[in-house]
Amino acid sequence: MATLFDIIKQNKEGNLSSIPVYKDGGLTKENIQGIINKYSKGKSPLTAENYIKVSNETGVPIELLLVQGIQESNFGTAGRAVRTKNVGNVGNTDDGYARNMNSWEDGLRAQANLLRKEYGATSMSAVRNLISNGFVRPKDKARYASDPQYEKRLSGLLKTITGQDFSAYKVSSDYEPSQSPYSKYDFSNQKLDYSQMNAQMESNQA
Fold first, then answer.
1. What is the Cα–Cα distance from 55 to 44, expressed in whole angstroms?
2. Which of helix, strand or coil describes residue 109?
3. What are phi and psi of 143, to 5 degrees?
4. Which candidate among 49, 51, 73, 162 keeps its CA 20 to 30 Å from the CA of 28?
5. In angstroms, rounded to a whole number, what is the distance separating the alpha carbons of residues 15 and 49?
6. Cα(85)–Cα(149) distance, rounded to whole angstroms?
7. pTM
8. CA–CA separation, 11 and 98 (whole Å)
9. 3-state DSSP assignment of residue 95
10. CA gap 43, 47 in Å, rounded
């Protein structure tokens, strides 16, 4: 099995324009940015730092935020999100109502807070249950999206970026983001480099 240092080396040397494949330790900052770059063709106003920060603040798995970002607006580069800064289309309705956000990070945070408060999506187990149950809100069984294939599309995207099968009736419980060795490192500092990361991990292992 690859060590944590092997994974970091592979991610550092990998091509960020390709779709990152889930590794043993979880999604790194570089993996996340690679996903954003791939699906937005390098044009997204959002960054890995935005996703890491909001996921850490709200407890909503970054994997779910990413696949919704792809499905809803290709990370803010398609549909109404381009003008509303509402990457997850929170409050945007099929009849044309549009909710504008003050910033792209505010839009991402609104998406995460909705998932946390209304859908209870604070673990990958909860995400699996949402996908299996049609991505409905527990309190009133309202769907997140009118698209009847919504959960199937999210499941497919999750498999693409994580390598894990999230499809209905094939639920696995062997992965939680909180178990990732990356979860204890703060990637929000844009100046963080691999030498600092390695030193931090070596210090924790001592």
1. 18
2. helix
3. -80, 150
4. 73
5. 19
6. 24
7. 0.70
8. 38
9. coil
10. 10
Residue 52 CA to residue 61 CA, distance in Å, equals 9
The one-letter amino acid at 3: T
Using CA atoms, how far residue 10 sits from 17, 47, 175, 186, 194, in Å, is 14, 21, 21, 20, 12
Give me the torsion for CA of 129, 179, 8, 199, rounded to 10°: 150
203 burial level (CB within 10 Å; 0-12, 13-18, 19+): exposed
pLDDT class of 76 with cuts at 50, 70, 90: very high
DSSP string, 20-45: PPP-TT---HHHHHHHHHHHHTT--S
168 backbone φψ class: left, alpha, beta (φ>0; ψ -120 to 50)? beta
How does pLDDT run across 122-169, given as a tens digit for each residue? 998 899 999 988 898 888 888 888 888 889 999 999 988 888 887 753
